[in-house]
Write a structure and sequence with these properties.
32% helix, DNA strand exchange activity, nucleus, 237 residues, binds magnesium ion, binds guanosine-5'-triphosphate, nine-stranded mixed beta sheet, ATP binding, double-stranded DNA binding, two-stranded antiparallel ribbon, alpha/beta
């Protein structure tokens, strides 16, 4: 079994909360209200994943599934500048796929897994921003919750397998309304499926520009909080 790598979020305090950063070989989910920085974190990880391991990186490429049309190449470029990475080269190491519905999202995951297999060891991170948005549209009816949960569980189980098979980190974002307990990911509410995200982080707005991350679920780290900011160079302390 390969060694776990921790990919920096861009914020030392958030990294510390996570035990060093976003882990390879498992799923990390950030959930929170709009504008808490989920997409900006995703963009920051696009760059940090490429850095040398001793700089908090994963020395690998990134796959980004964009379900809301919020991927911005220019953001990756300006974050690359902050880390002293060539902006164009940084962008070329991010493969972006736009998902149009939940089924398409699953097809893209399958296609990316094939790509990871073709280029063994090249990819360190797979981002899905956001994991649930298209499911909410496709399964909007009251009677469709259990169908939605079943399809979502299939997707999470496939993502878990990809994280283990290719020793890459899976980073999922999930927009929820204002409560840290509102686990929209698990419509049943009571019990999480066995292959649920290993690490779950709740994000909220703090004072002014400040944002607060709270570790909600972790296999090996204690509960705690960290603060971070969203800047032109990405997520920072
Ligand atoms: P939803 O997808 O709507 O749920 O929100 P989100 O959690 O993905 O929020 P996102 O990551 O898009 O963060 C939005 C915040 O980032 C806003 O407050 C923006 O002002 C801020 N932001 C985006 N780009 C920049 C930038 O270049 N500089 C700075 N300083 N802030 C930025
Ligand atoms: Mg977003």
């Amino acid at each position: 079994r390969e060694k776990v790598i921790f990919i920096s979020t861009g914020s030392a305090s958030l990294d510390a909360l996570l035990g060093g950063g976003v882990q390879t070989g498992s799923i990390t989910e950030v959930y929170g209200e709009f504008r808490t920085g989920k997409t900006q974190l995703s963009h920051t990880l696009c760059v940090t994943s490429q850095l040398p391991v001793d700089m908090g990186g994963g020395e690998g490429k990134v796959a980004f599934i964009d379900t809301e049309g919020t991927f911005r190449p220019d953001r990756v470029k300006s974050i690359a500048e902050r880390f002293g990475v060539d902006p164009q080269a940084a962008l070329e190491n991010v493969v972006v796929a736009r998902a149009h519905n939940s089924e398409h999202q699953m097809e893209l995951i399958t296609a990316l897994a094939a790509k990871f297999a073709e280029e063994q060891g090249a990819y360190r991170l797979l981002i899905v921003d956001s994991i649930l948005a298209l499911f909410r549209i496709d399964y909007a009816g009251r009677g469709e919750l259990s169908d939605r949960q079943q399809k979502l569980n299939q997707m999470l189980s496939r993502l878990t397998r990809i994280s283990e098979e290719f020793q890459c980190a899976i980073f999922l974002t999930n927009q929820v309304q204002s409560s840290p307990d509102a686990s929209a990911m698990f419509a049943g509410g009571d019990k999480k499926p066995a292959h649920a995200s290993a690490t779950r982080v709740y994000l909220r707005k703090g004072r002014g520009e400040e944002r607060v991350a709270k570790l909600a679920d972790s296999p090996d780290m204690p509960e705690g909080e960290a603060t971070y900011k969203i800047t032109v160079g990405g997520i920072m302390d």
